[in-house]
Amino acid sequence: MKKLVYKKLRLRIVAITLAVAITPLVVLGWMIYSQFVNVSKQRIEYQIRQMARSQSNAIDVFLKERVNNLSTMVNTLSFEKLQRQVELSHLFQVLSHRTDGLGLVDLGVIDDTGQHLAYAGPFKLEGLNYYSEPWFGEVMSKGEFISDVYMGFRQLPHFIVAVRGRSGNKNWILRATIDSDVFNSLVRTGQTGRSGDAFIINKQGVFETQPRFHGMILEKSDLDPRQFGEGTTVVRHVDKDGKKKFYAGAWLKNNNWLLIISEETCRGMGGLLMSRNMEILIIVLGCFGIILTTLLTTHMIVRRLEDSDREMSVLNAQLVQTDKLAALGKMATGIAHEINNPLAVIGEKAGWMMDLLSEEEFQHSENLQEYVASVEKIEEHVERARKITHNMLGFARRMEPHLDDVDINSVLEQTLSLLENHARDNNISIHKKLMPDLPVVASDQAQLQQVFLNLINNAVDAIGKDGLVEITTFLKNQDVVIKIRDDGPGIPKEYQKKIFDPFFTTKATGKGTGLGLSISFNIIEKLGGSIVFGEAKQGGAVFTIKLPLVLPEKK
Amino acid sequence: MNMFRVLVVDDEVDFLETIVKRLQKRKIDAEGVTTGEAAVEVLNNKLFDVVLLDVKMPGGMDGIQTLREIKKIQPLAEVLLLTGHASVETSIEGMKLGAFDYLLKPMKFEELLIKMAAAFEKKDIHDKKIRSAKIQELIRYPSKVLDDDF
């Protein structure tokens, strides 16, 4: 029952301490982590937004420059000159020899019927007619045009920049193809790290440049361009691999292309992840430390409480025992006084009879011997009763521990006189091997008597019926040794370690308090001695008490 | 040799009578009274060597009060206290007040006689010392009138 109470108490303390200690730690950790995540996301968003903005500007400048170059050529060189193959090739050659090469793959001149009049470049495109190509109409109407990427006659993905010129009353077109490698390289300068990407899609979501991951040029991307508003927009999107990514989109000035800069959410938060892992590690270690400390502290507290409860129980029991003894003492004192007075009268009357019997007139009485013997018996039993009342008082008067001059043998004799009848009734003989002239020691007579009474009483109880209790006293080194042996069944091994524990008893309920040996142990310890249990060679139990030989003059 | 003069004070009449008779049988001049007040009255009229005094006497003067009175009336009389176990402490207190010794009831009569003899011997020595002191005083100051008791 008590164990259950301690278990519940232990669980309650552990639960409360853990809740109070760990909850704030976890909440704080979670808050810090959330804060970290938000700050990191904001940082990544800011970075890719900035990147998209600057990169789109760079691409706009690149395209604008190509358009301007073509416009300059259209305005400064005549149609008649440029429509000649030699002139155009020469111009293309000059342009190609520039350091940057302008990134042009070829150059062509087309008249207002769509006829490809002159061509300088690696493909055989002379003589082709572009009238039905969508871009042709666009250039003719708008004056300048940057196409989407398409396959065209060369069957390779490419896009063109074209500018309309005017010769007389006829329009013509100067068209250039942009080098995909140069353009792709330019776009990709916007990609970051291992997981970043930079590409362009058109209004229909078709790739205009080769993306780094997932998809090919001219394929439809899984991004919807409509979710990107004017200016630079950042959206979160899960790609085909299930990776969460940030996509920053910036529309180019031609209003047809959307530059996308992307970055994986978690990649961008590499530092954050490390911080998160570190934080989790610290929290886990902290929790582990708290749990360990809580368990240890709780264990210690509950142990202390158990010890203190146990001590309290022992003290209470001793108090009860002391009260009992005090009550017994008062009762014994009263009884002894009431009995001693009549005993004194009986004793004196018997003495007076003996005085009278010694007179001359009785000397010739034939029953004189019978009278004398009877009176002597009366005196003998008065003496016996006197001893009993005195012993009762000696036992009951449990004074504060103080050192008397104690004759151990005499204390044993007194104790035995209290138990003799009980032993005789059960046919238990008591053998005394008391060392003659055992020195008188300075000790507490009343308390020693209690110890002897406990041990001899236990011995008699252990035997039950028909047996022997042997009491031996002797001197060994500087100790007075008292051995109390019985030939009872002995004490089972499993109980031997517990016999001096308070409340440990093998007697039936109500027969023993389990305090006798514990109190005896304490008394002997206080008197500076020791008490040990052993198994007798002949079977049964033997208790050995050693008391220091403190002579009265040294006390 | 002078006869012992012994006064026995005990409220237990049977005990008192028997003790007195046993003492008288041994040629001791013994008298008995059952209360402290009676003891004081007897002591005012007669000298005693030893007083055997029960410590616990219900009603009236108890043993200790009687002892104080005895020591006022006859300081030289030796007092032996009789007690049951309950009043050992009282007996010890009595000895501090000048009682010679104490005996535990029921006691052996021989033990009583031995202690009584010892008390008488002490009293006798004391008496003799007083006598010789008075003789010396007489020798030194012959003009001084001798005490009637001498």
Short structural summary:
Chain A is of the alpha+beta class and 555 residues long.
List the topology elements.
The complex is a heterodimer of chains A (555) and B (150).
Chain A: H1 2-76, H2 79-82, H3 85-96, E1 104-111, E2 116-120, H4 134-142, E3 144-146, E4 160-167, E5 170-178, H5 180-188, E6 197-202, E7 232-238, E8 244-251, E9 257-264, H6 265-268, H7 270-357, H8 360-363, H9 368-396, E10 404-406, H10 408-425, E11 428-434, E12 441-443, H11 445-463, E13 467-476, E14 479-486, H12 493-496, H13 516-526, E15 530-535, E16 541-548
Parallel strand pairs in A: 11-13
Antiparallel strand pairs in A: 1-2, 1-5, 3-4, 4-5, 6-9, 7-8, 8-9, 10-12, 13-14, 14-16, 15-16
Helix pairs in contact in A: 1-7, 7-9, 9-10, 10-11, 11-13
Chain B: E1 5-9, H1 13-25, E2 29-33, H2 36-45, E3 50-54, H3 63-73, E4 78-83, H4 88-96, E5 101-104, H5 109-140
Parallel strand pairs in B: 1-2, 1-3, 3-4, 4-5
Helix pairs in contact in B: 2-3
**Unreliable stretches of chain B, pLDDT < 50, 5 or more residues?**
none
Structural class by SSE content of chain B: alpha/beta
What is the CATH H-level superfamily of the largest domain in chain A? PAS domain
Q: Given the helix and strand composition of chain A, which structural class is it?
A: alpha+beta
CATH homologous superfamily assignment of chain B: Response regulator
The order of strands across the largest sheet of chain B is 2-1-3-4-5
The total count of strands of chain B amounts to: 5
Radius of gyration of chain B: 16 Å
Largest sheet of chain B: 5 strands, parallel
Under the CATH scheme, which class of the largest domain in chain A?
Answer: Alpha Beta
Q: Indicate the mean pLDDT of chain B.
A: 86
How much β-strand is present in the residues of chain B? 15-25%
| Overall tally of domains of chain B | 1
What's the total helix number of chain B? 5
Distance linking N and C termini of chain B: 17 Å
